[in-house]
Amino acid sequence: MSRPWREYVWRDMGAEDRARVLGRSNGRVFDPELMASVAAILEEVRTEGDAACSRALARFDGCDVPPDRLRVLADEIAAAGAEVPPAVREAIRYGIESLRRFHTRQAREREWREEIRPGLVVGERRTPVTRVGLFVPSGKASYPSVMMQLGTPAVVAGVPEVAVIVPPAPGGDGRVDPAVL
Fold this sequence. Notes:
Elements: H1 15-26, H2 32-48, H3 50-61, H4 74-83, H5 86-107, E1 111-117, E2 120-125, E3 131-135, H6 144-157, E4 161-165
Parallel strand pairs: 3-4
Antiparallel strand pairs: 1-2
Helix pairs in contact: 2-3, 5-6
């Protein structure tokens, strides 16, 4: 049976293969020209707001999304469920419930302290942040699993304000995948 992916076993790889695989992750991330172009886009968004976001979507993703349509409305989110096939909806519910159980267990002990040596006390205290921004990628595919993996812990932790950024599918009409919504 052939796999649709290639498997790498670190301990079996030579130095050249290790460097090549690690280099893929970095790609052009540290390219000065790319960093300068990203900085320019960020400055445009900082100074011009949503209009700059709409221009960037048109330029890079081929989407014509006017500034007043960048935010997905509550009724669009509510209606999205009807567009998702029942099997996908069930898989999403199952995944969210599994993640909720895991993170609920993980968060059960919000604070602990222990004296590990005389006079040396260590510990941990978890407190939710008041707001969080989540980025769910889009592009070559849709990633409702990323939304589940980021959003569920935020809800379990009790974060009162959650903002989610999801780019529309490239070349589309600006809609976000209903499974993500």
